[in-house]
Design goal:
The complex is a heterodimer of chains A (about 290) and B (about 250). With about 290 residues, chain A is an all-alpha fold. Chain A contains ten helices and one strand. Chain A is globular, with a radius of gyration of 21 Å. The termini of chain B are far apart. The chains are: A mainly alpha (about 290), B alpha+beta (about 250). The interface between A and B is large, with 59 and 69 residues.
Amino acid sequence: MHPAPSVIFFSVFSGLGFGLLVWLGLGIPAVTGGSAFAFFAIAYILAVGGLISSTFHLGHPERALKAFSQWRSSWLSREGVCAVAALVLMALYGAGLVFFETRWSIFGVLGALFSLATVFTTSMIYAQLKTVPRWNMPLTPVNFLSLSLAGGALLAGQVSAALVLILIAGIVQGVTWMLGDKRFDESGTNIATGTQLGNVGSVRAFEPPHTGTNYLLREFVYVIGRKHASKLRVISLLLMSILPFLLLLLPFNHFLAVIAVLAHVAGVLVARWLFFAEAEHVVGLYYGKR
Amino acid sequence: MTTLPTHTDKKLGLVIDLDTCVGCHACVISCKGWNTENYGAPLSDQDPYGADPSGTFLNRVHSYEVQPPQGEAQLIHFPKSCLHCEDAPCVTVCPTGASYKRVEDGIVLVNESDCIGCGLCAWACPYGAREMDQEEKVMKKCTLCVDRIYNENLPEIDREPSCVRTCPAGARHFGDLGDPDSAVSQLVQERGGVDLMPEQGTKPVNKYLPPRPKDTLPEAGPEFDVLAPFLEPVINEPKGFLGWLDKALEKI
């Protein structure tokens, strides 16, 4: 799959932002006034910035409002609904904390739930696709949620929670890669089922429909960088999990915490790039490619 | 509404005969011609006369080499367009309701004025039947020539999809696959029509007729070779200068 930068940035930063909102919604840390404003500002910049960047890959962003209408069937529509609900609820909750020094916990808890739901619905957009076997497994939402909660804990300054969650997120990431590697073969889809010519003999793509490229090949058959996948996985895990874990073990220091956050974000960005670049769409089979 | 209808009155679709298709791509061109001039946004090309041409097509013809365990390899031309699936995954993923499946005839369509161009429906389609037009930024797909098949301004003979009307080999058939007595259903029954990627659970309406078993080539022998005396090469060896050159080179 083509790793569109807008979608990578969206899913990483909004995942972080909503992860932070989950913690803030539950009152961890219990901040009010100016420091609450700072925490909420960071969360909103990440979450809203991510959402805005996601509209860059739309062909017609001016029609984006229509995307709230199909929540009955579409995970993408549900994501939009959950995101707006979370942002509105958390804005009310945040206003209470910042301006009135009061904690309207009903808004906070509901906002935290919708924030979690937003990350879950984002992951389900990918996990629902049978056409991309690597994504089509229950571990995909676990992967997204664990990263979001770990990143949120890190941003919320919850050192002991972050220590555990970052380790869990790293393990989940590793297992996701290992199981994901087998998914395409397990899916049972291959050139023989695609063409239904398997009972004649072994099938080989002989001539593509066009000498040039097309939308399908650009969007779904992205092979650049796969040869470095194993190195990138190691780099990603080191940055996302191991380095922040070690930094958090040291006596607390704001400078080290910032390094830990930056390393984590960089690691998740690499992982998300791999999430797309390594994913193979079954349509490639028709072109004799994967 | 992007939830799928529980029932469609008809299941209009195509039956594609892989035994008959000669791979001429006439269906591709006629499809592009009709659909760029009629319903919806035109099918644009990018850099059409340049070094890296590409464009939007609703129908593409692949060619596959199939090597049986014994005998000669076969070349099979393979036209592919939207299969108008009963469980169309492209419809349910659409966030805006632009994608829908019609209750009256089962055709899967895109309402282009509602499409935000997110591309998720193309991701959900295992067959590569949907392509985002790079100029109009909306999703394009086969409409089963919905603007031909009911079009009373056309002579009756033309009220079928453009690809079917054009095919010079008669490899494409159009009809109601929901009606067991229709000509297309009968054809599917007789020839053992199949679904592409059945494991994807899309329940395609379009069916593919597998190639018939090939005749075995007779071994070349005197009993078959009635024309052989007339067809034998007149000159087995080069003569004149080439003959000399041939001999000279042999000696080196």
